[in-house]
Amino acid sequence: MTHEDIMKQDQDYVLHTYNRYDVALVRGKGAYVYDTNGKEYLDFLAGISVCNFGHCNPTINQAVKEQLDTLVHTSNLYYTENQGELARRISEISFPGKTFFGNSGTEANEAALKLCRYRGNKIHKDKYVILSLKGSFHGRSTGSLALTGQAKHQEGFEPLLPGIYHVEANNIKDLEDHFNQNVAGIFLEPIQGESGIHPLTKDFARRTRELCDQYDALLIMDEIQTGLGRTGKYFGYEHYPIVPDGFTLAKSLANGIPIGAFHIDNKFKDDLPPGKHASTFGGNPLAMRAGIEVMKILTDGLLDQINDTSQALFGILEQLKAEYSFITEVRGFGLMIALELSISGIDVLKKCHEEGLLCNAIGEHIIRFLPPLTLTQKETQLFSEKMNRVFSHFKGV
Ligand SMILES: Cc1ncc(COP(=O)(O)O)c(C=O)c1O
Hints:
This protein is α/β, with parallel strands linked by helices.
């Protein structure tokens, strides 16, 4: 199909909940994707941190193909081998616990929210309050939308799930003011992604842990964007002097096959008992098999490569900042990087597309990069050349 045919069919039949860029992608390989005209793009967004192990990764795809011919779906009424193996591998790189599988990030957060509420209700009838942070993003289902601390996403859907309150990020006084014995849990992104890559401070994370312990509330880390190597460690929380009670994963866990996971410390393993939560597709053998392959790649020395690539990319971006005064800040962890600009982010993004580079603009002045974690030195060098060309268009602006 041509670019125009694809666009027209989409506009005629797909519910218009997205404003898409004028790019139609048909194929991907490693760090590259290709449009209808065969134009190559270096993918520094990776499907918003989903295809982190490269598009059509041959090892993962081979395993998925084998699984397709073996068993795709049964039901959670029966045991299957892959679910336990992936859950075990998640425990091995975090802390001993139990994992519930769903199909997306929003579902992972729903499961966590339900466990916090169910446990809270058992302790006493008013222990249902859930806290999260202003500026956070936790998903779009009604529960996870209520957690999401951004009015622009919530407007028009009121009344939202009651009993959820938003604390100002990194404001310890505001955090303390919201905490009491009625708090059942708090959701934190270690580094807020959708709002433009804003990390928590260590003091704020530490105080949250103390307050959770004091008031018997659960600390849940939303690692949907930050987890699985994205920040240079297995989990974003490892940059902080705390361990959460649970965390949620999705996005890259199956490198593009829909998946979500909620992992909870063994101490709380009985707080969402049989019959209280379920998912038809969650934990199906196909997604689990992809997840197992992802975990093998991740734990086979990839963190060292991620940190080397991160150092090289920060070097390139700091050099650009020294050259172009409209770049006001380079920030991030590992391969979760943002540029703060004094010029229009959308204009920069358009030039990136012209130059064959995918990334995204957040708000008016932030450009976000989430490249594949498997990026090579050659691809890093190519990024440098493309960004130099992009920014040279804005010289003198
Ligand atoms: C931190 C975080 N939480 C939750 C979600 C929601 O995940 P999904 O879109 O898979 O439901 C996202 C998606 O961008 C996210 O970045």
